[in-house]
Amino acid sequence: MNDVMNGIDRRRFFRINDNVGVNYRQLDESEINQHIESLVNPSDAVALISDYSKQVETLLSQVVMKDPLVGELLGVMNKKINCVIQQLELESQLTTDLAHTVQEVNISACGMALCVDEKLDSGAVLDLELMLLPARHLLHCHGVVIDATEAKSGSGFHTRVDFSGMSSDDQELLIQHIVKRQGALLKALRDSEALNRAVAER
Predict the structure, then answer these.
(1) H and E: helices and strands count for the chain
(2) Which bin fits 123, alpha (ψ -120 to 50), beta or left (φ > 0)?
(3) Lowest mean pLDDT among 61-75, 81-95, 101-115, 176-190
(4) How many Å apart are CA 59 and CA 96, to the nearest integer?
(5) CA 45 – CA 5 distance, rounded (Å)
(6) Residue 57 and residue 30: Cα distance in Å, rounded?
């Protein structure tokens, strides 16, 4: 059991360079005092809509049996509502994509290092959103700034951030993404080395 738990803990510290969509804003003191659980998680809203849809389908089938005309009317209204929801989801997705700046970061399940335009003070708390690519999974948590130094090349500041308040589901999703990306990078490295050896042997 301890070996399994140690394996899970080790996964938290796997660190890779990856292109991630990043959106953040610095929180003021009043916002910092709010619990992370009060933040709206988009995946919760999706699950809620799915549950409502199932309830509507169940009730609609009962109405159709009692009054086909009313059932048909409600069915048409439900389809109309679904069309509106789909349009809103599309617009929301486009807005989300525009809000997230895709950049290379060095990331683990516990935190990340990235380059930002402004200098953030150590201890600053960020409202942080990450979009994992290419699946476009959206993660939401707080980030605590560890330090920020001027970038050695180009402009901006090399900033290290620790994650705080990330849900266990989001953290597991991030861990799986990192492990998968690490596997892909190692495979690409092995393929490149094999190709170089084949070329050298010719």
Answers:
(1) 5, 6
(2) left
(3) 81-95
(4) 34
(5) 32
(6) 43
